[in-house]
Automatic annotation (TrEMBL):
Keywords: Oxidoreductase. It is an enzyme of class 1 (oxidoreductase). This is SDR family NAD(P)-dependent oxidoreductase. Belongs to the short-chain dehydrogenases/reductases (SDR) family. Gene3D superfamilies: NAD(P)-binding Rossmann-like Domain. The keyword Cell cycle does not apply. Residues 2-145 form the Ketoreductase domain. It comes from Kitasatospora cinereorecta. Pfam families: adh_short (PF00106). CDD domains: SDR_c. Its EC number is 1.-.-.-.
């Protein structure tokens, strides 16, 4: 039986990945900051799907948290076959309104953690001749949106570059770029989302289904939803900043773990 490690696994897209992969019969390693929520999620998944579920409490905004995930990924006696780098967050307000430390934490979670965990997972996967890594980015990668959009653009470019480097090894990488996705965090964080049209919302389950289908097909970029595929296509054609307002108007104060 194969094993998947998912960061930011207790809610939203991370929880949807956990449900789907458990339903597919994969054992799980769930990573998040909240130990109590991790334990509850693990118990529910193990009971509901009959798989083995391990938990790892780690804050990926810290060196200690990233190192704990690296260590688990390098454990050759308990190989991880699928890595889902989903943990992430947004900062509310314009750039100069956000504390510098919050921006630095974002770089740590969105960039350094993904760089280090991908590096930790790849050698074992390549040696076994199989594996998959999904790095969750965002449609915001293609729309100017301060540090958040910049980090997600890095995720896309990093993932597609590494995918080329390991082509033919049996290991597949994907940058997943969802648009607005309904999760509990919008309500819990008090995000102002009334300005987002109904058609703009995706379900986390749909995002995961499209991601895994694209991964099986070897697609290094997955943009769930026809409307968001169109948004990305247009954003690539327009001058920089042409569609920036679409994402910048949305409130941004949530963490996906």
């Amino acid at each position: 039986m194969t094993t998947a490690l998912i960061t930011g696994a207790t809610a939203g897209i991370g929880a949807a990945f956990a449900r789907r992969l458990a339903r597919d019969g994969r054992d799980l390693v769930l990573v998040a900051r909240d130990g109590e929520r991790l334990a509850a999620a693990a118990a529910e998944l193990a009971k509901g799907y009959g798989v083995q579920v391990e938990t790892l409490t780690a804050d990926l905004a810290t060196d200690l948290g990233i190192a704990a995930v690296e260590e688990r990924l390098r454990d050759a006696d308990r190989p991880v076959d699928i890595l889902i780098n989903n943990a992430g967050f947004g900062n509310r307000g314009a750039f100069l309104d956000v504390p510098l430390q919050a921006e630095l934490d974002m770089l740590k979670v969105h960039v350094e953690a993904i760089l280090r965990t991908t590096t930790a997972a790849l050698p074992g996967m390549r040696e076994r001749g199989r594996g998959g890594i999904v790095n969750v980015a965002s449609v915001a990668a293609f729309l100017p949106r301060g540090t958040y959009g910049a980090t997600k653009a890095w995720v896309v470019n990093f993932t597609q570059g590494i995918a080329r480097d390991v082509a033919g090894s049996g290991v597949r990488l994907q940058a997943l770029c969802p648009g607005f996705t309904r999760t509990e965090f919008h309500q819990r964080a008090g995000m102002g989302t009334s300005n987002i049209p109904r058609w703009g919302w995706l379900s986390a389950d749909r995002v995961v289904d499209e991601s895994l289908r694209d991964l099986a097909r070897g697609r290094t970029l997955s943009v769930p939803g026809k409307r968001y595929k169109a948004v990305v296509a247009v954003a690539r054609l327009l001058p920089a900043g042409g569609l920036g307002g679409i994402s910048s108007k949305a409130a941004r104060s949530y963490r996906t773990d």
